[in-house]
Amino acid sequence: MKVAVCSTQPYDRESLQAANAAFGQQLVFFEERLSTKTIALFAGYPVLCAFVNDRLDAEVLQALSDQGLRLVALRCAGFNNVDIEATQRLGICVARVPAYSPHSVAEHTLALMLALNRKTHRAYNRIRDGNFSLHGLLGFELRGRTVGIIGTGRIGQAVAEILRGFGCNLLAYDIAQNPACSALGVNYVGLDALYRDSDIITLHCPLNQQTRHLIDAAALARMRRGVMLLNTSRGAVVDTAAVIGALKSGQVGYLGMDVYEQEGDLFFRNLSEQVIQDDIFERLLTFPNVLITGHQGFFTTEALASIAATTLENIRNFEQGGQCQNEVTRALLR
Q1: With 60 as the cut, is the pLDDT of residue 332 above it?
Q2: Which of 29, 130, 190, 200 has the fewest CB neighbours in a 10 Å radius?
Q3: Is 263 known to be catalytic?
Q4: How would residue 325 be classed by pLDDT, with cut points 50, 70 and 90?
């Protein structure tokens, strides 16, 4: 099938072309993101291969449906950027990559946790400046600390497996308990108990109506003072303005983010020669106890290969039978 690949970076082209040797799809690569302004570029393709910051709202979907769009093949797990109600009304199938490499994101979460705790990012810059003072670099042992995991799907489970090796006490919250996490000794509790008892809280839940701004001012107020908060899920799970207030007051002692609720205007681009216009994001960068990465948690060779293979498999399944096992349905919206 003829496939328009949106938001293409060099590594996307490389991984998809390598995987496509086994599938033979007609891949057409575009650097541009899909939005209302770029609809014309993607008109006439039966398949769109989209990423996290491509916008597939009702207006975009209607326009492309009129031009023959039949399948949206997401090369990511999340689908919050797609109006699923509109796709079902228009008869457009949406498929995703539900579990490309949970260990990649889990390991990046631990990288943020360790860097924030032991302040290795700050130490690196000090040493380069010839400053060998240890003042301000004091950390703590993870062993014996309580970590709250919100969302215990495959990524949350992988995080629990790693933290168990560190000797952490593990709490978790999810609407459905994962037996594998329970077998690791994870204790499922309500959100209030998790907020109250956790030294570190890490987010691994999808973004939907129930989780949007799950971490708001009220939630932050219920956490331990000086808590470490990590978000490698979706940016809008955290109310950024509220977390800035909590950083200023000292309620949040450490913040690690690989995602940001307005990242669509920033991430996956080189803006080093521009003045960034997002004042909230710029405010976050002023805090010494905040560490931000640009949605790179997934970015490993293993994950890219898995994403490409599953995406192309989804397209082939649809081509052969009109549906695929990784289709997004209304049940997943709950």
Answers
A1: no
A2: 130
A3: yes
A4: confident
- Give tens-digit pLDDT for 290-314: 999 999 999 999 999 999 999 999 9
Length of the chain in residues, anyone?
334
Q: Which residues contact 167 (CB under 8 A, 6 or more apart)?
A: 142, 143, 144
Domain range 102-292, its CATH number among 3.40.50.1360, 3.10.580.10, 3.40.50.720, 3.40.1350.10: 3.40.50.720
pLDDT at 54 over 60: yes
Burial degree of 123 (CB within 10 A; 0-12, 13-18, 19+): middle
Tell me the HSE value of 316 on the side-chain side, using a 13 A CA sphere: 13
Residue 331 has pLDDT above 70, yes or no: no
Averaged pLDDT score across all residues of the chain: 95
Q: Mark whether 107 is an active-site residue.
A: no
Compute the distance between CA of residue 97 and CA of residue 266 in angstroms, rounded to an integer: 23
Cα distance between residue 333 and residue 25, in whole Å: 30
Domain boundaries, the chain: 2-100+300-333, 102-292
Catalytic residue (choose from 295, 302, 319, 327): 295
What does the pLDDT read at residue 115? Answer: 98
Catalytic residue among 234, 313, 316, 330: 234
Token pair 């293993």 in the structure block, residue = 302
User: What is the 3-state composition of the chain as percent helix, strand, coil, each rounded to the nearest 5?
Assistant: 40, 15, 45
* Global confidence as pTM: 0.90
Question: What is the residue whose two structure tokens read 């042992």?
Answer: 141
CATH code 3.30.300.20 for 2-100+300-333: no
Distance CA 47, CA 61 (A): 12
